[in-house]
Amino acid sequence: MALKAVERLASVDRNGQATSSPTNLAELAGKRARNFFEAHHLSCSEAALLVINEGFGGGLSPDQAIAMGSGFGGGIGNSGCVCGALSGAVMGMGLLVGPRGPFALEKKEFRKGVGHFHDQFQQQSGAVCCRNLIADFRKGSRARKNFCADLTEGAVRDAVAYCLEKRPEISRQAHLEFLAGRDSRLSLLVGKLFRPPFAG
Fold it and tell me: Does residue 191 lie in a domain region?
């Protein structure tokens, strides 16, 4: 994304740090998770954890975040249990504000917040189990992919909003250029085709 566009999303504090409202950051994170789910063909859990980690300095490499989230897609190994978007978002919350995270909450407060997040997800979506959420969709259908993209976007948005509400200082390390970025399938394909040999 062009620097001018990123500058429009942010303001600058007294120390010259880029800032953005918590609502705006949460919305950006949700949209970026949707983008990774759709353009990069990541699972819901992979996209959720990757974006929270990369967008807010969670400390994992992108490959580590994707690897950690990889088993939760399809409701934990395609078992249909807990929705991967919910699982990935909860892992991201733990990464940032879990009891041993860089912006740690006390264990009791964190677990209460995660419980509320779970209940809110269930209330908004009607279920937390993947099999129940996608029961009305044909496997591989565009409608199912859009539905899962919606769940991923919403889970990440709400998880980031929770983290920023509890620890507003997290916004100071937000990676605005990453969060505001958008990749297309075509740009990813062109990048692969024209990548020099032995390039990372």
Answer: no
Q: Report pLDDT digits (tens) over 114-153.
A: 999 999 999 999 999 999 999 999 999 999 999 999 999 9
Let me know: does 32 contact 177? Beta carbons within 8 Å: no
Residue 42 structural domain: 3-184
Quick one: pLDDT at residue 189?
A: 53
User: Are 97 and 103 contacting, i.e. CB atoms less than 8 angstroms apart?
Assistant: yes
What value does the mean pLDDT of the chain take?
87
Q: What total number of domains does the chain contain?
A: 1
**Residues 81 and 128: beta-carbon distance below 8 Å:** no
Q: Hey, what are 172's tokens?
A: 């100071």
Query: Is residue 194 included in any domain, yes or no?
Result: no
